[in-house]
Structures are given as structure tokens and as C-alpha cells.
């Protein structure tokens, strides 16, 4: 709408330019106005079209799909409207409340807690190191960050794999387990403990580097004052560091929560994670299995919508935090 | 100052111990991956810290028998298409939001933030159906299009900072010299934003290179896998040949790590800041 008005005003301006040279300045101003109105939208258009077509439109489609029974047919699918049946099945089913949601939520909270704690500890450590060791540690942190989720998961599976895995052998030689008979991937708790190590290993570098950037902004005088008042390191951390860079902690915590709620690859690739063992489903994997392994696209879509709504709620909190901080100059 | 504080015995021992623990935790998985890939007796190494020998037989195996060269090529093609499109589109969009004041600008920015939170599992179902209807499954182009969309929000958000960092006066000087907007863009803005553009592009490449869900769902032909999905085939029904799995994992991981170190230096704190804000 804006664009249309702008160009109309502009075209009449340029025709008057040709007929009456005295209006030169006026026309130029109008043309400039037209440019400032249309150019940002012209520049944005390709990106917005791609985002709308591949992110927003599918979201609408998945919502629609969750209200349908969708059958795969040659040359397109066949959809029957079923109302909220999929949601009713999902929300009244035992699997969701006893397995899927607890797995998703407890796993996410364990990962977030450990990621933020470890990341903060590492940031404090980096802050106390000399330049050489700081560089060495930073590069090693980058290596952990750069490890792709897929290959990282394979390495952790290999380390914990029954019989031949390094940790299985180690625990066996220490007499903790019998490597021949122990499989850590079949039970929910050890399965998710391994997934947690994997996710924390991949996720703490971001927290460490962000918190370190925050630590560098805290004036040294605050700590000196604290020391004079007789506060020990523990008290200085809780009463000076944490309150001063509280916004940084909020942001890394919320972002980690968003990421850890939608962990998929790290669970899906683990032995039994791709649907063979329903005990270890999380919301994302459950949705995927329903849709692609059981061909029940509607039920999968309903679970996906539930996950999206959960994440959207967290995202709203995140954006409000950003705005309340007032740091974000949108 | 920190030296004065760390005089106590606990601190003198604690600091090196913490550094050692950090280095082991971060680097051990990488070491274990590479050393298993090189170990000719990978499966029976157990808890031996050193490989039983150094050989490239697992790498030969994944290329000769596993067709892994093809998968790496597929990943590279998808990554490059993603880079080219994402860099161009995000640069334009970043200029729009960094340089112009217009109605709904804040809404656009918030939308860019929000779409990044959407879980891939919610997108993969409708996009799979859509791509099947358009017969774009098993097509590297179809996959690239999805990756362009996935990498755009972060790219726009990061580049926006780089564009905003170019002083407006430089642009105005170009206008005074009689340059048109496009001339100014080509000769002034583009070279100045160049380093940021390279860094953002590499990040888009990493996104495409690492992605699993879409590649796994869309690409089902034997010669169509991307590298991240291609590793899957070395898993057997009952036993897994960990040598080839770790060799192919190494091939997937090493380029990403190299790129990551380059990008990180370029982006400086921008990577963290960009991620914080989006």
C-alpha cells in the first residue's frame, strides 16, 4: 500500500519535472521521498518472500494438517477434516504425560542447568587466565562448539557403546558393570544422561563466551570494594557478578531453554532413539515418528504444533526480556 | 590483580586442574574420533588411549565402498548454493533494516527473531508434503532452498550489525561525488561490509553442511545423501563398524572446525552477540 502511493506520487513528480524546470527542487524531494519509502521494501522483498514461503506458510500448513487425516496418494495427498481429534488423542494419551513430556521437560531443564553452570564456570576460569592459556582454552572451546551435532552424537555413542565402547570397558575393568551385559542405551535414565553430556558439551561454549563478554564489562572497582568489605570469592560472585550481568544470564538461559526443548538429532541418532524404543521419545522425535514412520501425518503435526506453541511461549518471554533490558536498539 | 588473589594453595592447584579438566572435556571426543578413524583395529581398541597403529584404511573404505566422495560433493554443492543465495538476500535485507527508517521495521525485526525459534520438526512435515507435490524430493536444489530459508534469519541479524558499523558519512561522501545508490553500494558499502559477509556466508555454509533432519527426510536416493546423512550407512544391523563411522565423521567435522576458527576471529564477539540477539 505504502509502496503504491509512493510510486504514484513520484511518477507525477517526474513528469512535472520535464514540463516545468522551476519545480526542480520539489520533484527531487518527492523522488527522494519515494525512494526512501520503496527502497527498504524492495531490498527486503526477496528475503521476506523466502521466509514467508518456507517458514511461515509451512507453519500454517502444519496447523491445518493437525486438524486432518492425511493419506499419501500418488500425485498428491488426500485430506479429511477431523477437527481436534488428533489433539484429543494426543492430550488424553498416556504416552504424552508419562513419557514424552517428562522426557522433553526434564531433559531440557537438566541440559539448561548444566550448560549455564558449566558455561559460567568456564567463563570465570577464562577470565583469570593469562593470554596464552586463555587462547589455548578458547580454541578448545571453539572445537567443542564447532563439532557438528551428528558427528558429536556418533562419538558419544561410540564412547558409551556396549561391549567395545571406551567407557563401557573402563567401567568393566573397574568392576562397576559387566560390559558384556550392560547396555546404557536401553533405559531411559542412562540414555538421557548420555544425551545430556552430548548436548552440554555442544552448548556450553556459547554460554562461556557470552558470559565472558559480560564479565569484561564489570568495573574492577566493584570487586575491590567487595574485597575491602571482606566478601570472599563465593560472595563476590553472587552479590556482584550475578546482579551486574543478570541480563546476560537471562538471555543465555532463555536461549538454551529454547534450543534444548527442541533437541532432535542428538536423540534420534542414538541407539533406539529413532522410534524403536518408545520409552525415550521426546516431543520432537515423537512428532517425527508419528508422521514419517507411522505415516500418521495429522498426529505428527498435532505434536509438532504443541512443541511450537511451547517454544513460542518461551520466545515471547525472551523478546520481552530483550526489550525490558532496553539494550536492544531495534 | 588476579595473581594477588590466587595466592592460596587451593587456587594454585585448582587453576591448572580446572584448565586440564576443561581441555580434556572439550578435546577428548575430537581426539577419540580422529584416533579411532586412524586405528586399523578400531573396534577392539577398548579403552586404550593410543591407537594400535596409524593407517588410512578406514578413509579408503569410506571413499571406495561407501561412496562418501559423492556425499561430500553433494554437501558442498548444497552449501555453496546456500551461501550464494543467503549472502545476497541477507545483505539486501540487512541494508534495509540497518540503513532505512520505515513503517513496520520493528515488526520485521521481531519476525526475524521469532522464526528462528520454530522447531525444524514442525517444518519438516509440511515441507516434505509440499516438496513431494512439486517433485522436489531427492533434489539438491530443493534441499538448498530449505537451507537458504533456515540460514537467512541469523545472516540478516548478524549482517545488520556490520552494515550499521559503516559510518553514514562514507556513503554521503560517495553521493556528493555524484555516485548513484547502486554505484555507492558496489564501490563503498560492499567492500566495507565484505569481511562480515564472508563470515556470515561461512556460517550459512556450516548450517547447511551440518543439517540432518531435512537431508535425512528428503534425500532417499543412494547417491543423493549429504555427508551428514551418509555416515548413517556404516551402521550395521547388530554391529557397527566404528572405524568407517569415525573416519567419515572426521571428514565431516574437520572442515567445520577450520571454518569455525576463521569465522570466529572475523566475527570477534559479533558471533556471540549476534547469537545472543537472535
Q: Gist?
A:
The complex is a heterodimer of chains A (330) and B (278). Chain A has 330 residues and is mostly helical.
CATH homologous superfamily (4th level) name of the largest domain in chain B = MetI-like
Tell me the domain tally of chain A. 2
The main β sheet of chain A shows up as:
2 strands, antiparallel
Mean model confidence by pLDDT of chain A: 86
Work out the helix count of chain A.
14
Please provide the count of β strands of chain A: 2
Quaternary organisation of the protein chains: heterodimer
Kindly name the structural category of chain B: mainly alpha
Main sheet properties of chain B: none
Percent helix of chain B: over 70%
Domain ABC transmembrane type-1 (chain B): 72-263
Main location (chain B): membrane
Membrane topology (chain B): Multi-pass membrane protein
GO cellular component, one term (chain B): plasma membrane
What does this structure look like?
Chain B: It comes from Streptomyces aurantiacus JA 4570. Chain B: It is a multi-pass membrane protein. Chain B: InterPro entries: BP-dep_ABC_trans_perm, MetI-like, MetI-like_sf. The complex is a heterodimer of chains A (330) and B (278). Chain A is mainly alpha-helical and 330 residues long. Chain A has 2 domains: 2-65; 85-325, MetI-like (MetI-like fold), CATH 1.10.3720.10. Chain A has helices at 2-19, 24-65, 85-92, 94-128, 131-146, 149-160, 166-173, 188-215, 220-228, 233-244, 246-261, 265-268, 283-293, 297-325; strands at residues 68-73, 76-81. Chain A has a two-stranded antiparallel sheet with strand order 1-2. In chain A, β1 (68-73) and β2 (76-81) form a beta hairpin. The longest helix of chain A is centred in the N-terminal third of the chain and has 42 residues, at 24-65. The radius of gyration of chain A is 27 Å and the shape is flat. Chain B has 278 residues and is an all-alpha fold. Chain B contains 13 helices and no strands. Chain B has helices at 2-5, 9-38, 57-64, 68-99, 105-115, 120-133, 140-165, 168-176, 181-210, 213-218, 227-230, 242-267, 270-277. The longest helix of chain B is centred in the first third of the chain and has 32 residues, at 68-99. Classes of the chains: A mainly alpha (330), B mainly alpha (278). At the A-B interface, α2, α4, α5, α6 and α7 of A face α2, α4, α5, α6 and α7 of B.
